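This follows on from our talk about sequence and fold. I would like you to pick a protein and set down its sequence and fold. Go ahead and set the record down below:
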Amino acid sequence: MSVKPLTGPLCTRDSLAADLRALGLAPGGTLLLHASLSSLGWVCGGPGVVVGALLDVLGGDGTLVVPTHTGDNSDPADWENPPAPEAWWADIRATMPAFDARSTPVFGVGVIPETVRNWPGVVRSSHPQTSFAAVGPRAGALVDGHALDCRFGERSPLARLEEAGARVLLLGADFSSCTAFHLAEYRIPAPQEDNSFAVMTPRGRAWSTVRDTAVSADRFDELGAAFERARPVVRGAVGGARARLFDLADAVAYAESWLIEHRPRPGG
């Protein structure tokens, strides 16, 4: 039986760090990362090597932030891929484990965020669905105060990242993954919706429902394509991955005007 050889390029901690520096990443920065491990090639040592290379480049004064979302902690009536049988809904709402920032694993955002979640010294925000985790001297200030009724708005880490002058790195990820665009959704007319999850309260685990701004990544790929045509976006390669590096505040400001013009939403 033939066995397929490993496919490259071969990436090491040093080679990844060199590529990141060549892209424009520098010590002392604050970085929001969206990454695909498989896009890089074959990483000798796995996802921890990628995180290590990023921290090497950011240095002791830099801070790395990743989405550590847990979208499975949500109302089963809204599940689509796959849908949950209606007969299960009540039991799911009654038994879904409450979010724990220390131990709840990520869901649907990849192995690199899960690696950061377990990194020494990591700090994680407290939202049951859209938490962010950070490593570095600004970590606590960036993730503190994440309100239950504000997934991506002014009381979320995205607004703190904007204030901190953060940049966004899409590392083998496309603009449909760019959570910074969601901050723009909170700043333009948008409908409100119920959002439910299992959360820990002073009285124990509870199924909670809050009102929040409705968010959607619909057409974010088109928004991103327009953004990089109009605004400064550094493009390059890190390992085998296509990489884009840009200013978070610039992306949010561009998205506000683009969404109003190209994706108006009923009920906003």
